[in-house]
Structures are given as C-alpha cells and as structure tokens.
C-alpha cells in the first residue's frame, strides 16, 4: 500500500522525532521548551510537553501542531508546573498532519499515569496492536507510539511475577527502532532499543538530570553532557539519581548512519564524534573518490554545507556560498504533493548568479532521494550561466526503504532505483555525477562499520520486516475510545526484573 491509497490523512504517521526530558528541576517545562527548540530540526509538525510534580498529582500537558516557538508561550509554560517533564517534537511526513498523532501520549493504567515520547518506528506495531485490541485496548490514534503506551500501561500478562509488575517486561515485546522518554508517577525513564537505531544522551544541570535526542539540546541550556544511553539500556531516574536496567537480549549495534549524513544537527556529538566534522570528512572522501577540475565548490544549503567544505579543502577549490537559503520555510519533505514539493524546493533557495556565471561548478548535497532538489539546483546553476555543473553526493545512492524511522518514499520512487548512474546524470542535467560509497562513508565517521545500520543503501535490515505484519495494516484502523483505569497506588513503573 502506498500513501496514495490511504483513505485518511491520519495514515502513515512515522517517527523522525526529537525527545527531551528533565528530572528534578523547578523550571522543568521551560528547560524542555528550550531542549525541544534545539531539537526542532528533528521534527517540525507538532510539539508537546507533559509535566508532573509529586506522585498522584495529575500530569499537565500541552501539545499542538506547529513549531516549538509557535506551540508554547510564557503563559502556557507557566501553567506547566512540575519538577519533571518530557517533551517531543514530531516530524511531518507523507500527508499525515494530525493533532491526534502529536506526542507525548498519555494514559492512565494499572501502574498510574504514564506519558511517553517516541523516536523511531516499530516493525511489529500491527501485530502488537491486534493483540492489545483483542485483550480490550481501545486505540485513539493510528500511531505505533500508542502501542508502546498501551504495552506500558497494562500488566504484561506474563506469568513471571516480577515481569508482570514491571513495565520493563512489556518493552521486550517491541521490535524495531524505539528511543523513548517516559514519565511515570515517580520517575523519568530513557530507553534505547537494543540495536540503538536512534540517539539518546544523558546530561546534568544544577542537580537535575536531563535526557535528549542530541547533545545540541544540552548546549543551549548549559547542561553538562554525562554520557550516551547505550543500545539496550533503560535508564531510570528518580530521587536517588539514574540507575540502569538491561531488559533486552543483546543485539549487534545498528546506529542509523543517516543521522551523521543528514538528520542530526552539525553541532551535536554522537558516539564522541562531532557530526559537522564527520560530514566534512565525507566531503574529503568524496573528493578523493570523484575528483573533478572546477573553479568553485557550491553547497546545497544547509544539508550540503560541511561536505562541500571538505570537498573544497581536499581539492583546494574555492568554496562559494552561492545559494542563499530562506530559513523561514520548513523542509521540502513537508509537502504532500509533487507539485507543492517542487514549489518548496524553488522557494527555499535563491542563487547569487554572479558567483557562478562562466564558472565550472561542483555542487554538493548530502543525499539524493527522489532527485527533486538536485535537479532544481543544477537547473538554477545552468540558468545562471555556469559553464559546467558537476553533482557530488556525500552518501551512497538510496535504494531501500527505511523501516526504522527515516522518512524515505517507497523504494520504487527513489531515483537510484529508477535510473542508471548515467541516466541520473542526464536527468539532473549535470556534466558528471559522483556518490560516496559505503566504505568511504563509514570511514568518514571514524567508527567501525559493524556499528551501523546501512539498510537504506544495502538492503541489509538489522531487524527483518515481515510484510504480513506491515505497519500500514494497522494504520488503516481508527480506534476512537480510550482505556482509562484510575490507579490507587504508585509503584515504581520500572521495578527491576531481577
Ligand atoms: P530529493 O529532493 O527527493 O532528492 O531529496 C533530497 C534532499 O532532501 C536533500 O537535499 C536532502 O538533504 C534532503 N533529505 C534527504 N532525506 C530526507 C528526509 N528523510 N527528510 C527530509 N529531507 C531529506
């Protein structure tokens, strides 16, 4: 099934998102606001914050469609009192622009109130949802994060006594990519799935603990980076500080390399590697792999900036910031139709024609997906009088779907699946084209190849996807009601299984 077959706009929620959490700070909501502000690049569709004080007091929530700065104001933040908070900023994808899918999501279950914010994509959401519905759960959204919420809010159903007391056992049922921040009656919990597809970091600020998708969120609030949450780790923060549980079977790490290529903010550090530095090295690798004689290197801003810098440094070709970006427009992927997408690509950038006229130009971007952006940029350069236009791309050709949270179109819509390399060059109208290869890309990160999920380039899926349990099966259903059970006690949500 494709998005076009979807009868409702609420279909196809996916989860390229930013998450943030605070434990033990009087300004938890304001800190979360700024944390989300720094994570805005991870999601521009909706934003939300949930706060809480002592166990049993009702969680306070505000979430709405829009950018973080539009969703919150001082009055709203002042109403979100509490020492604990979790927040979420959600990415817009193929047309699913719906407040019901905004996060964090809340429920009131046998373990009391619970709120979760999710980054990633489950691959067994349909199967779990069927099972939960059979057991009486009623779903409000079409979102697989709600499946996680139901799993956590209910007893696990396992015979093992500790397992049924603790939500840790429930998390073991989830398969796929899930970086979560969770708020229970007493705790803030951070979870990274055992493959570690998406990032999560722990920090400290004035005695309070913070969790964030990326370290750039800590920089803004002057939080001190403590460490990464490891793949498979559940960190439970309460008044005694953080403690770790390891409920999952150990898996081979599969961090999404596309976070380094495109998704993460350049000032973030992931696995002690600065993203901007990795991107600059990708540009250097690209220059070594596909050198070209040219007068200037022009980035496609902002995604190609650092790779272009590396390319220019490696070949000693001057760097020219010839495209000027209008920063007040969302990413081009936000547009639902091809027509609007083309329009957004054109509206986003203007070219300083004098910089490129009569020049041999290398234009560098991080990736080509459908080819819309690259084609428009080559056309701009030609129309401005560039003598030659050489396209360079700082990752390999995208040929496979991402099942773990990055928004790529169906594989048949990926340009590299439609055309051979020389035909891609013709389609873009370029004089030459060169993509980075997988080994060079990995080398640029300075991390071992075994660390990464490279599925969008090579089709090797760390968690195999059963087409019969495709998430779209469940996304067509629309539960409307809610399962609210009032808790009469407040045990630790994440009581140890040991
Ligand atoms: P396209 O125009 O379809 O070829 O998309 C490529 C452009 O979109 C490049 O400039 C990338 O930086 C950017 N891009 C790549 N992947 C994504 C994604 N998952 N979401 C939003 N933008 C993306």
Polypeptide structure, described:
With 498 residues, the chain is an alpha+beta fold. The chain folds into two domains: 8-254 and 475-497, Glutamine Phosphoribosylpyrophosphate, subunit 1, domain 1; 274-327 and 338-446, Rossmann fold (3-Layer(aba) Sandwich), CATH 3.40.50.2020. Helices cover 29% and strands 22% of the residues. It has a seven-stranded antiparallel β-sheet. β7 (179-183) and β8 form a beta hairpin. α4 packs across α5. The longest helix is centred in the middle third of the chain and has 15 residues, at 275-289. It starts with 16 loop residues before the first strand and ends in a 23-residue tail after the last helix. Bound molecules: adenosine monophosphate. Adenosine monophosphate is lined by residues 262, 300, 303, 331, 333, 365-374, 406-408.
Task: Chart the SSEs and their pairings.
Blueprint: E1 17-23, H1 28-38, E2 46-52, E3 60-65, H2 68-71, H3 74-79, E4 84-90, E5 105-109, E6 112-119, H4 125-134, H5 144-153, H6 161-165, H7 167-171, E7 179-183, E8 188-192, E9 201-205, E10 208-212, H8 216-221, E11 224-228, E12 234-238, E13 241-245, E14 255-256, H9 258-263, E15 269-270, E16 273-274, H10 275-289, E17 296-299, H11 305-315, E18 323-325, H12 338-348, E19 349-351, H13 353-356, E20 360-365, H14 372-383, E21 388-393, H15 415-418, H16 421-428, E22 432-435, H17 438-445, E23 452-453, H18 455-458, H19 471-475
Parallel strand pairs: 14-23, 17-20, 20-21, 21-22
Antiparallel strand pairs: 1-4, 1-10, 2-3, 2-4, 5-6, 6-7, 7-8, 8-12, 9-10, 9-11, 12-13, 15-16, 18-19
Helix pairs in contact: 4-5, 10-11, 10-17
Bound molecules: adenosine monophosphate.
Adenosine monophosphate is lined by residues 262, 300, 303, 331, 333, 365-374, 406-408.
């Amino acid at each position: 099934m494709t998005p076009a077959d979807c009868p409702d706009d609420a279909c196809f929620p996916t989860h390229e998102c930013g998450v943030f959490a605070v434990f033990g700070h009087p300004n938890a909501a304001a800190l979360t606001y700024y944390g989300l502000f720094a994570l805005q690049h991870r999601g521009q569709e909706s934003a939300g914050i949930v706060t809480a004080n002592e166990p049993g007091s009702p969680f306070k929530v505000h979430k709405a469609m829009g950018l973080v700065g539009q969703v919150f104001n001082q009055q709203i933040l002042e109403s979100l009192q509490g020492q604990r908070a979790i927040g979420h900023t959600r990415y817009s994808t193929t047309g699913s622009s719906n407040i019901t899918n905004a996060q964090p999501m809340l429920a009131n279950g046998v373990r009391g109130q619970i709120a979760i914010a999710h980054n990633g994509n489950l691959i067994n959401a349909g199967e779990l949802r069927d099972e939960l519905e059979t057991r009486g759960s009623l779903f409000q959204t079409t979102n697989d994060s709600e499946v996680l919420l139901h799993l956590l809010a209910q007893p696990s159903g396992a015979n093992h006594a500790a397992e049924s007391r603790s939500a840790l056992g429930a998390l073991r049922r989830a398969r796929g990519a899930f970086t979560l921040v969770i708020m229970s009656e007493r705790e803030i919990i951070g979870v990274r799935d055992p493959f570690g597809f998406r990032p999560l970091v722990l920090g400290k600020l004035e005695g309070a603990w913070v969790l964030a998708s990326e370290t750039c969120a800590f920089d803004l609030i002057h939080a001190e980076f403590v460490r990464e949450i490891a793949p498979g780790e559940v960190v439970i923060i309460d008044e005694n500080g953080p403690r770790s549980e390891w409920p999952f079977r150990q898996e081979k790490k599969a961090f999404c390399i596309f976070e380094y290529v495109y998704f993460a903010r350049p000032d973030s550090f992931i696995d002690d590697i600065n993203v901007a530095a990795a991107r600059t090295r990708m540009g250097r690798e690209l220059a070594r792999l596909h050198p070209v004689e040219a007068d200037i290197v022009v980035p496609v801003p902002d995604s190609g900036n650092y790779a272009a810098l590396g390319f220019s440094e490696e070949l000693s070709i001057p760097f020219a910031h010839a495209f000027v970006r209008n920063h007040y427009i969302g990413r081009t992927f936000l547009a639902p139709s091809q027509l609007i997408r083309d329009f957004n690509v054109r509206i986003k950038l203007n070219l300083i024609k004098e910089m490129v006229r009569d020049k041999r130009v290398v234009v560098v971007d991080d990736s080509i997906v459908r080819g819309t952006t690259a084609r428009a940029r080559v056309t701009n350069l030609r129309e401005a009088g560039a003598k030659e236009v050489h396209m360079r791309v700082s990752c390999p050709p995208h040929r496979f779907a991402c099942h773990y949270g990055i928004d790529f179109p169906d594989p048949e819509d990926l340009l590299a699946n439609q055309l051979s390399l020389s035909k891609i060059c013709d389609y873009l109208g370029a004089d030459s084209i060169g993509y980075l290869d997988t080994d060079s890309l990995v080398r640029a990160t300075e991390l071992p190849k075994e660390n990464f999920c490279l599925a969008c380039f090579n089709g090797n899926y760390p968690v195999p996807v059963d087409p019969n349990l495709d998430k779209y099966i469940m996304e067509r259903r629309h539960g409307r009601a809610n399962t609210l059970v009032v808790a009469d006690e407040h045990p630790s949500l994440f009581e140890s299984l040991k």
